[in-house]
């Protein structure tokens, strides 16, 4: 959309030029012939830059848009470029004007729109130059209005295109350096220390991302953004909900796990006594063949070990197990220095192939401990809670990891920093 404007004729080529920028404009550059005109001296021709190529931007001179209820008009366009080695970065700076709020800048780079204003009360005493950055051994930091800022990048820019009105005197080929700093909160914006080459006035600016700029100015064919801007906040709106969701699933899995444990059938005691009194064979009945079964050996040992040969035979004579189980338990110390290792029990798990009488043979190995109570128990129809415990752990990890993913995304704002610790 465009507002009502007055116009002048270019004193170099005669083209009609809109006058949009208020009484503080001192330069107008013709977009047709490239003539720089002195707005304070009857638009006298100062210089002519022919052959300039207008950079691509969704915003044009005369477009108006509102931010926080304040209407701004696009009055000027600068094409900017930085070259480092074989890499080239290009962006467009548009000067904005509001009759009530003065001048500002709207920058377009990779589709991201950034609103920038000059700081009248900036930390000029801490003006950060590229020379200071080069001398620093760690990323420079500074404070302004209670906020800590850290060095982000240094830009060596060159103006390649000029068109429109400005409250200063821009030139094609003008160069300068901008050092930027950021805080950890994107809402604090970015501070820029601008130092043009040639002794022009140094400035401190503050920038904020303006995602709604294209809509505010009525852009009919909005350009898409590419990549992540350092001022872009990546906080996920669903983060707290997802944390609560996974935490709830973890609690539910734990609760179900305890329910399964509580529903386990009571064990049958097959033998209780001394290992020396073990019978050659222990026969026990199995009726549930749909779930796992378990034989458990328990030996009440203290700083000792015992080994057992275990054989299990099905009702049809099929050998289901012929294995060895060692039980050992050691402990010592007292209070905070107490320690223990090993276990007083071992298990033999199996899936019954059929119902009927099973035969168990448990023989103690010579050299092992023979003192202490010993018992053999059997439990059939066991409910397996392993996957519930595993699910609880997985859901818990997901709930704990989500905030770290958010931190990682926010830290990605700094990936474009050019700071290097290498000398």
Would you kindly provide a written description of the structure presented here, covering whatever features stand out?
With 423 residues, this protein is mainly beta. The protein folds into three domains: 6-216, no CATH class; 239-259 and 387-416, no CATH class; 271-382, Jelly Rolls (Sandwich), CATH 2.60.120. The chain is 14% helix and 43% strand. The strands form four sheets. The chain has an eight-stranded antiparallel β-barrel with strand order 7-8-9-10-15-14-13-12. Strands 17-23-19-20-21 form a five-stranded antiparallel sheet, with no helix packed on it. The two termini are 52 Å apart.
Concise account of the structure shown:
It holds the Pfam family DUF4178. With 423 residues, the chain is mostly beta strands. The chain folds into 3 domains: 6-216, no CATH class; 239-259 and 387-416, no CATH class; 271-382, Jelly Rolls (Sandwich), CATH 2.60.120.
List descriptors.
single chain, 423 residues, mainly beta, Jelly Rolls, 3 domains, eight-stranded antiparallel barrel, five-stranded antiparallel beta sheet, 4 helices, 24 strands, 43% strand, elongated, transmembrane, DUF4178 domain-containing protein, DUF4178
Structural class: mainly beta
**Tally of distinct domains:** 3
Shape: elongated
Stretches where pLDDT falls below 50 for ≥5 residues? Answer: none
Q: Please give the count of helices.
A: 4
* Largest β-sheet summary: 8 strands, antiparallel, barrel
Strand content: 35-45%
Regarding quaternary structure, what we see is single chain
Helix content: 10-25%
Strand order of the largest sheet: 7-8-9-10-15-14-13-12
Instruction: Calculate the terminal CA-CA distance, rounded to whole Å.
Output: 52 Å
Mean pLDDT: 88
What is the succession of H and E elements? EEEEEEEEEEHEEEEEHHEEEEEEEEEH
Computed over alpha carbons, the radius of gyration is: 39 Å
């Amino acid at each position: 959309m465009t507002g009502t404007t007055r116009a002048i004729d270019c004193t170099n080529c005669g083209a009609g030029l809109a006058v949009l920028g208020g009484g503080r404009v001192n330069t107008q550059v013709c977009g047709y012939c490239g003539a720089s005109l002195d707005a304070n001296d009857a638009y006298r021709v100062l210089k002519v830059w022919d052959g300039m190529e207008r950079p691509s931007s969704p915003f044009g001179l005369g477009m108006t848009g509102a931010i926080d209820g304040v209407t701004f008009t696009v009055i000027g366009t600068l094409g900017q470029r930085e070259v480092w080695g074989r890499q080239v970065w290009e962006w467009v700076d548009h000067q904005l004007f509001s009759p009530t709020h003065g001048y500002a800048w709207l920058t377009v780079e990779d589709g991201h729109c950034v609103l920038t204003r000059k700081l009248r009360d900036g930390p000029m005493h801490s003006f950060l130059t590229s020379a200071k950055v080069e001398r620093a051994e760690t990323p420079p930091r500074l404070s302004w209005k209670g906020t800590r800022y850290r060095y982000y990048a240094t830009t060596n820019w060159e103006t390649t295109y000029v068109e429109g009105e400005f409250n200063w005197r821009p030139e094609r080929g003008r160069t300068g350096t901008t050092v930027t700093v950021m805080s950890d909160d994107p809402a604090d914006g970015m501070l820029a220390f601008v130092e043009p080459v040639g002794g022009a006035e140094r400035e401190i600016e503050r920038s904020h991302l303006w995602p709604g700029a294209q809509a505010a100015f009525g852009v009919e064919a909005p350009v898409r953004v590419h990549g992540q801007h350092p001022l872009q906040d990546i906080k996920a709106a669903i983060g707290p909900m997802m944390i609560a969701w996974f935490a709830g699933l973890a609690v539910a899995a734990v609760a179900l796990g305890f329910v399964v444990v509580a529903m386990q059938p009571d064990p049958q005691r097959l033998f209780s006594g001394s290992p020396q009194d073990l019978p050659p064979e222990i026969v026990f009945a199995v009726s549930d063949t749909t779930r796992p079964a378990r034989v458990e050996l328990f030996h009440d040992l203290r700083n000792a070990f015992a080994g057992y040969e275990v054989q299990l035979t099905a009702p049809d004579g099929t050998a289901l197990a012929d294995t060895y189980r060692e039980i050992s338990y050691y402990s010592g110390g007292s209070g905070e220095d107490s320690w223990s290792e090993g276990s007083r029990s071992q298990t033999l798990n199996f899936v019954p192939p059929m119902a009927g009488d099973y035969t168990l043979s448990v023989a103690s190995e010579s050299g092992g401990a023979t003192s202490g109570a010993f018992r053999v128990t059997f439990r059939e129809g066991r409910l397996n809670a392993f996957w519930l415990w595993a699910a609880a752990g997985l859901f818990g990890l997901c709930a704990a990891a989500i905030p770290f993913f958010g931190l990682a995304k926010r830290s990605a704002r700094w990936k474009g920093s050019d700071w290097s610790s290498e000398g």
